[in-house]
Amino acid sequence: MVNKYDSWHEDRVGDDDLDTAWYNFVLSRLELLDLNAKRVLEIGCGRGSFASHIENKFPQIDELVACDFSLNALEIAKSRSTNKISWMKEDIMNMTFQADSFDVIISCETIEHIKNPKKALEELNRVLKPGGYLILTCPNYFNFFGIWCLYRSIIRKPYTEGGQPYVNYILIPTVLIKLRKLKFKFVHFHTSELVIPWFVPKHFWNKKLPRIIKILGFRTFYLLKKRDVT
Q1: For residues 122 and 152, what is the distance between their CA atoms, to the nearest angstrom?
Q2: Mean pLDDT, residues 29-39
Q3: What span, in angstroms and rounded, lies between the C-alpha atoms of 174 and 111?
Q4: DSSP code of 210?
Q5: How far is CA 204 from CA 17, 146, 217, in A?
């Protein structure tokens, strides 16, 4: 799978859109946190545009570590970067960092592209300091769109999220249960986009779903706090 993502990133050197719902969410949450002298990790940084944007926007960050498991993506990031970001190859399911290493961790649209999202959440919890914050975004297939994706898989024309080499159709109840088992405090949580699949998919509530049906939102946004050791 790594080699497939190397090729995927090579074909998309200029395809970095910072104006997305998930990046805008991360920026809005970072503005609420005290980042002075903090150590920040972005895991699944891809070609590095967002990590560079974070460092420029929040110069008070003490250290920014940006990681991906595609070496090609990291090489592209380094070639376009003139800052002091630490670029590292890491597997979100088995990171080499010591426990309690980071004050803030950012994971955008990453855990749906690995074999074991639960293991990734355990690792994110492990390397986050007590009292630290995890900003997490990912799709949710526990909805009408997920049923359509199941149908596409049955007819062997799977939905690939725009040509991604691997997609794990994760479900919001599974993620919520795992986060609660890890004893994260939910500082903020919402979903957006109720997608009705059709010849042209219909999107409703593109910013935020009503609370009563938020479990059906296609996009999920979390600000989580690791509880202090007592």
Answers
A1: 31
A2: 94
A3: 12
A4: -
A5: 22, 16, 9
How many whole angstroms separate alpha carbon 227 and alpha carbon 230?
Answer: 9
Write down the mean pLDDT value for the chain: 92
Extract the tokens encoding 63: 């250290």
| 161-199 pLDDT, tens digit each | 888 888 999 999 999 999 999 999 999 999 999 999 987
**Kind plus residue range of the DSSP H or E element containing 128:** strand 128-139
CA–CA separation, 48 and 73 (whole Å): 8
CA distance 24 to 101: 25
Are 97 and 122 within 8 A, CB to CB? no
Domains of the chain: 2-226 (3.40.50.150)
Q: How far apart are the two ends of the chain, measured CA to CA in Å?
A: 41
Amino acid letter at 58?
F
Burial of residue 119, with CB atoms counted within 10 A of its CB: 0-12 exposed, 13-18 middle, 19 or more buried: middle
Q: Which residue has the tokens 């007819």?
A: 155
157: confidence class by pLDDT, cuts 50, 70, 90:
very high
Buried b (16+ CB within 10 A) or exposed e, 34-57: ebeebbbbbbbbbbbbbbbebbee
Give the pairing type, strands 184-192 and 102-108. unpaired
Closest CA to 50 of 69, 66, 68, 34: 66
